[in-house]
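JOB MANIFEST
job_type = single_chain_structure
chain_count = 1
residues = 424
[input]
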Amino acid sequence: MEVEEALRERIAGMERRISNLERLVRVSLMLNSTLSLEPLLETIIQVIIELTETEDCSIMLLDEKTGELRFRAARRMRREELEQIAVPLDNSIAGWIFRENKPLLIRDAQKDTRFYQGVDEKLDFCTRSIIGVPLQVRGRVIGVLEAINKRGDKEMSWEDVNVMTALAAQAAIAIENARLMEELRMAYEKLHELDRLKSDFISIAAHELRTPLSLILGYASFLRGSATGQASEQLDIVLQSAMRLNSLIGDMVNLRHIETGEAQLELGIFSLNDLVRVCLQEFLSLIRVKQQTVGLNLPSPPLMIEADRQKLHLVLGNLLSNAVKFTPAGGRIEVLACEREGKAWVAVRDTGIGIPRKEWERVFDRFYQVEPSLSRRYEGMGLGLSIAKGMVELHGGRIWVESEVGKGSTFVFHLPLTQSPGGA
């Protein structure tokens, strides 16, 4: 009979272990699919209490700022109570587990010299026994998982320790992933708020600057008509500076409209050949000053497209401006257009300074500069290509660059010949 009884106990013990292992596998799958920290902690607490048959369970995580362990979850404590309690790394059982990175089973906590009485005193609770295991991620301890007071007449066992250790390995990874996701969410919200403030600032600044700038341009133009000599030269400088500021304000507003989705297409059918010639004509005087040569290759008959003429004018203007700016005296600029695969293709090629291959994608980022900001030779805020990309993509097209340092760059974009209804 004794042999049979012992055998039944062994079988019952094995069944219990198998049941615990099955539960651990299910819990591990659930933990790895949860990225919200608070529900995750509550789940861990509940599972530990059930598997170890204890009265309570707590999770403490290291506070990097204070170097203390802070309660993040416990069955017997409300959130507002948790936030007020810290456990020191010295002179506490949890601190010993954290520092030594070892599990610990204590059947009589009150007699253990490491036991920290502060928590029981604050909560009016009596801790009799404790199992604690470290929460470890990639060799780094991030906290401690504890089970408190075995229920009934049973004693805590090393089998309970093994169960908690197995769960802690999965729980620590899940907690760290959830913390990282929480930090990422908060960073994203902060970034979103900063982006909103930036957009509001651009709108207010543009509105407040345009009225006085219009007055300056109008008055300076009026005086320029009758000024002579040195006064005329000084007014030219004022006009050029005011025009440059007006252009920068326009760039900021256009970029904001693109980013906020406020930009809309005003479609019309027009000659792409004519648009290219008009844009190129605007830069001819600057091209002559720099003694650059120009090549023009346009399709015949003229290529008719349905698009927003003003926005494509802005795209071509930005590409030509960069080509002239970054091409040295005596260099060459070419503009090509054609129809290919049912799309309108345009390329602006120069023999300028070129762009390293690793920077090809970055040149379309807002405020990107080819040169270091402290040693710049070329003016501009780095918005032109970002605006050009936004305008092309608004048409359902694509823009990219091919370049070689010291030999020049080719900016290419294509867009549909006809816009789909409602595509704007």
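[summary]
The radius of gyration is 35 Å.
The longest helix spans residues 158-226.
exit_status = 0
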